[in-house]
Amino acid sequence: MAYYTVGTIVNTHGIKGEVRVIATTDFPESRFAVGSTLYAFQKDQATPVTLTVASVRQHKNFYLLSFEGKPSINDVEIFKQSTLKVTDNELESNDLRPGEYYYHQIVGLDAVTVDGENLGKIKEILSPGANDVWVVARPGKSDLLLPKIDQVIKRVDLDQGEVIVELMEGLD
């Protein structure tokens, strides 16, 4: 079974068992919905802890979650710095509109220029602000950072395993 990251528990909140979560999913409303199952991966633990969302609310840039059977701060303290994940069975392609992709679909694709030059493989996706940045590992060179904007990312071809890009001046 494959797991996909949807957030990170960064701290507790109050004394009633709530945790602060930074979302790393485009679908926090469905991933953190009451009744949703999440898997908490703790550092130095081989198997995840299964958690069911009991309540959710947004507070500033965080989601505040509580879990069934965990009514106090003492119950959730151990989950600080845990990564929250969902299984591949819980990913739904109907969540995506045309032209949208899950991160795991993009990571590992070849970045190829419109002229056919292979730049390297996309190794990770950063989400620093207004748009994502796709990081391309280039053999013998430093990583290339591609902003996820229409002027740069021309086409994603999952069947061919490549992303067609146009390098704007200053990117390389």
UniProtKB/TrEMBL annotation:
<protein>
    <recommendedName>
        <fullName>Ribosome maturation factor RimM</fullName>
    </recommendedName>
</protein>
<dbReference type="GO" id="GO:0005840">
    <property type="term" value="C:ribosome"/>
</dbReference>
<keyword id="KW-0963">Cytoplasm</keyword>
<comment type="function">
    <text>An accessory protein needed during the final step in the assembly of 30S ribosomal subunit, possibly for assembly of the head region. Essential for efficient processing of 16S rRNA. May be needed both before and after RbfA during the maturation of 16S rRNA. It has affinity for free ribosomal 30S subunits but not for 70S ribosomes.</text>
</comment>
<dbReference type="GO" id="GO:0043022">
    <property type="term" value="F:ribosome binding"/>
</dbReference>
<dbReference type="InterPro" id="IPR009000">
    <property type="entry name" value="Transl_B-barrel_sf"/>
</dbReference>
<dbReference type="GO" id="GO:0042274">
    <property type="term" value="P:ribosomal small subunit biogenesis"/>
</dbReference>
<dbReference type="InterPro" id="IPR011961">
    <property type="entry name" value="RimM"/>
</dbReference>
<dbReference type="GO" id="GO:0005737">
    <property type="term" value="C:cytoplasm"/>
</dbReference>
<dbReference type="GO" id="GO:0006364">
    <property type="term" value="P:rRNA processing"/>
</dbReference>
<keyword id="KW-0698">rRNA processing</keyword>
<keyword id="KW-0143">Chaperone</keyword>
<dbReference type="Pfam" id="PF01782">
    <property type="entry name" value="RimM"/>
</dbReference>
<dbReference type="InterPro" id="IPR002676">
    <property type="entry name" value="RimM_N"/>
</dbReference>
<dbReference type="InterPro" id="IPR027275">
    <property type="entry name" value="PRC-brl_dom"/>
</dbReference>
<comment type="similarity">
    <text>Belongs to the RimM family.</text>
</comment>
<feature type="domain" description="RimM N-terminal">
    <location>
        <begin position="5"/>
        <end position="88"/>
    </location>
</feature>
<keyword id="KW-0690">Ribosome biogenesis</keyword>
<dbReference type="InterPro" id="IPR036976">
    <property type="entry name" value="RimM_N_sf"/>
</dbReference>
<comment type="subunit">
    <text>Binds ribosomal protein uS19.</text>
</comment>
<dbReference type="InterPro" id="IPR011033">
    <property type="entry name" value="PRC_barrel-like_sf"/>
</dbReference>
<dbReference type="Pfam" id="PF05239">
    <property type="entry name" value="PRC"/>
</dbReference>
<feature type="domain" description="PRC-barrel">
    <location>
        <begin position="99"/>
        <end position="171"/>
    </location>
</feature>
